[in-house]
Amino acid sequence: MKKAHISNVDLNLLVVFDALVAEGHATRAAERIGLTQPAVSHSLNRLRALFGDPLFVRTPRGMTPTPLAQDIAASVRSILEQVEGVLLGGRAFDPSESTRQFVVGLSDYAAFVLLPRLTARLDREAPGVSLVIRNTSRSVGLPMLDDGAVELIAGNFPQPPTHMREELLYAEDFICAGRGDHPDLGESLDLDRYLSLRHLQVSMKGNPSGYVDAILAEKGMKRNVVMTVGHFLMAPMLVDASDLVATEPSRLFTPLAGRLPLRLFPPPIDIPSFRVVQTWHARHDADPGHQWLRRVFSEVGQWA
Hints:
It is a single chain. The chain is of the alpha/beta class. It has helices at residues 12-23, 26-33, 37-51, 67-87, 108-125, 141-147, 191-196, 211-218, 234-240, 250-253, 288-303; strands at 56-59, 62-65, 101-106, 130-135, 152-155, 164-172, 174-179, 198-202, 224-229, 245-249, 262-265, 274-281.
C-alpha cells in the first residue's frame, strides 16, 4: 500500500470495498450501497491505486478477491462497524443482526476443543457472523496479533507484552493414551511400564523432546520417543493404529475415547497443567463486537 495521510483518503472507498467483498459483483455491490455501477468501478480503480494491488479479479463466478483483499477484509469490516456505532451514538453490538467477520488464530488442539461449542453458539445467536480461523502456535501467536493477521488468539502462549490483554479460559491437564488392545498395557500404568513403552509426542516445531521430557529429565529419567508429529489431531489416530502411547492434553483424547478403542490413564508422574488463554491487542479493548466475541470464547471455555 502506498503511504498516504488519512486526511487525503476518502473513507467511502472502504464502504465500496466492503460491498464488493460481500457481493462479489460490481452491480450488486452498487445496489447494496446505493451507488451506480460506474461509480463503484471508479471507486475500485481508486482503491487499486491506493493499495497498489488489483484487489478483485474478474472470473466466471464474479469478482474474486486477491490475497491482499482477503487479508484486509475483516479489518475493513471492523472499522466500518465501529464507525457505524459511533454515528449511531455508540449503539451496542447486536450479534443477531451483525454480518461481521472475525479472524481468529487457533492451533488444531484449540480448534478441536473450542470450535464445536463456539459454532453452535454462533448458529443460535449470531447467524450472520462469520469466522476465519488461521493456524497459530505458541511461537507465532503473539506476532500474528501484532501484525494484525488475527484479531484474537486462543491457546497456550507466552506472557503477552503490555499492549496486549489476556484472559484465562481453562487449565488443561495431561492424560496418557494407548490403543484398547495394546499388548503391554495392564490395568494401570506405573512409571516403570511407562518408561518401557514407545512414545508419540506432538511438537509444532518438530522437536523430539518436549514438555513431558523436560519434567522427566528433572527427575533423571527419559522416555523413548520414536515419533514426533506437528499436529495434535494426528495423535489419537496414530495411537489407535499402533503400539505407541501418547501423553497429551486431556481434552484432546477424552472426547474421542468413546469413538476410538482407546485406553486412558493418569500419567505416572506429576505433570503440571498448562493455561489455555485468549489474547488480543489492546486496540480491540473498546470494540463492542470484539467484547462480545471474547465473552463467547470465555463462556465456551468454561464448558470445554
